[in-house]
Amino acid sequence: MPGESLFNALEPLLERVNKPIQYVGGELNSTVKDWNVGGHGPGGEELTTRWALMYPDAYEVGVPNQGVMILYEVLNERPDALAERTYAVWPDMEAQLREAGLPQFTVDGHRSVRDFDLFGLSFSTELGYTNMLTALDLAGIPLHAVDRDVDDPIVIAGGHAAFNPEPIASFIDAAIVGDGEQAVLTVTDIVGEWKAQGRPGGRREVLLRLARTGGVYVPAFYDVSYLPDGRIQRVAPSSDASGVPWRVSKHTVMDLDAWPYPKKPLVPLAESVHERMSVEIFRGCTRGCRFCQAGMITRPVRERSITGIGEMVERGLAATGFEEVGLLSLSSADHSEIADLTKGLADRYEGTQTGLSLPSTRVDAFNIDLANELTRNGRRSGLTFAPEGGSERIRKVINKMVSEEDLIKTVAAAYGAGWRQVKLYFMCGLPTETDEDVLQIAELAKRVIETGRQVSGRRDIRCTVSIGGFVPKPHTPFQWASQLGVEETDARLAKLRDAIRADKRYGSSIGFRYHDGQPGIVEGLLSRGDRRVGKVIEAVWRDGGRFDGWSEHFSYERWMRCADEAFADVPVDLAWYTTRERGESEVLPWDHLDSGLDKDWLWEDWQDALDETEVDDCRWTPCFDCGVCPQMGTEIEIGPTGKTLLPLTVLGSGRQDLLEHQH
Known about the structure:
Layout: H1 7-14, E1 49-55, H2 59-62, H3 66-76, E2 81-87, H4 91-100, E3 118-122, H5 129-139, E4 154-158, E5 174-175, H6 181-196, H7 202-211, E6 222-226, E7 232-237, E8 248-249, E9 277-280, E10 282-283, H8 293-297, E11 302-303, H9 306-320, E12 324-328, H10 338-348, E13 355-357, H11 368-375, E14 383-388, H12 392-397, H13 404-416, E15 421-428, H14 435-456, E16 462-469, H15 486-502, E17 510-514, H16 517-527, H17 534-542, H18 556-566, H19 574-578, E18 593-594, H20 599-610, H21 628-632, H22 653-662
Parallel strand pairs: 1-2, 1-3, 3-4, 4-5, 8-18, 9-12, 12-13, 14-15, 15-16, 16-17
Antiparallel strand pairs: 6-7, 10-11
InterPro entries: CHP03960_rSAM, Elp3/MiaA/NifB-like_rSAM, Radical_SAM_N2, rSAM, rSAM_horseshoe, rSAM_sf
Domain Radical SAM core: 271-513
Protein name: B12-binding domain-containing radical SAM protein
């Protein structure tokens, strides 16, 4: 029977695998609804729309993911819908499932993923693509969309990587770009109506209905033609797909206070990467860092009100029992009322074990008052800052408007106030970068240590330098840039490591962490690839590729070999997708997906980068015409509201008021 629990068959397998707890479900605030919660129509038609939601990584990484958690709750609030979660199973469980003939299952009801109407995958990184293929294959869903019939789930991709879904176009039925809250409800309405009508026209009809909304991309309804040199000639709606738009628009949720999710965050049973309750305090960023896809594709800035945040924190703590609250956004200290917010929350939870955290703080937005409020009730952890570029010149190229003096003043204040540990995050391989730009990171780190020793009078000052490889991303000014090759990246990082270690006065006080260039090149292939890259992904998966985001499972040799074979008959290769610079007139694989950003504006910003010209944040300055607000019918939404957080005289005294306010 569809929707039946498989747990009795799964249970014997649990003692044979690592971390069996991740497959058990039953977490605090999880939901298992009746399979036929929506009932039946007069002709016996099913009136329930069922979603299986997947974060295509291990449970410990996926379960705290805010995007999946929000959609899970939004869908389960509907009386005619249900949503359950599934995660990538480790290779040991995959082997057990195949041997036992059991499918990919949900952790909530332990139901087969193939029984659901929709299979939604949230990709925050492209390195999860092979895990998607494992899940499809285990579920018994044909790998290629063209081979699926009316009884197979509709496979929908979302998340930041879905802004260029072309490399996985043959494996997915649809993609949703942008915010998911309203989008999944629209999809639920369309699929629910189609089912209630008796599924007329089969799978093609429901996909056409989705595509005609203008906010769901169905790759099968678009034809791609290529020029002899391998570049794309054009992407156009298929002649037999009437009513399908030339460009698909992203979704933007405006009033975040009207979407206070998650109301009851999930509390993992097993250890996860984030042991805290998180509240998104605003969405979007207009700092204009040219490397940052997340900042570009989530425009405009939309703040949650200080009172709305206060309610979410109070409700979330009551529902979970967590002792740390993460105030999330792309640049949390930029909230227009961050000082009042952190002071108000610290006042509320004075005398409790509840601590506050900002995941990463901009150098020019940090101050000691803010830091002291964040640590008043919790433990004092290390501080993380992200200058991104080592030299003043490269920071102008990437529009990271932070001077060396800004950084030194900030760390001086931190070390002087009692911090002992600072982490600095940089990138290697940025456009126009030279060895000298990267070697400046060593000089900067030495200055940080020296400053810390001077202001604190102590020798036990530590600074960790963490380096990631730069990967050019779609919908950013660097989408045209060439990527630095593996050998060049590794050589540059080796020079930096030697420069840090060479100075005995500071070397032992500076930690150095970096990723080699290999995973970055594969990510570059997947992030700017087109439909031809799908053959590479499938070949890697068939060769055993799993969990490519994990260094112990990643095989560069496998990706290179499979890419060489897949591209043998076409005029493109790995370097064509990665280390090649694009021209202004080239049709990019994602041009028909509208992030709201004007392509001409992105090109101008790319030229400004090459000229080392900085651009201000449009939150506080006149508009620079990026295109988002007029095209999307949106606008920047920021405070100050002038409101304050009322104190909760006794911890929890606000809960009853909150419950009454909700009802």
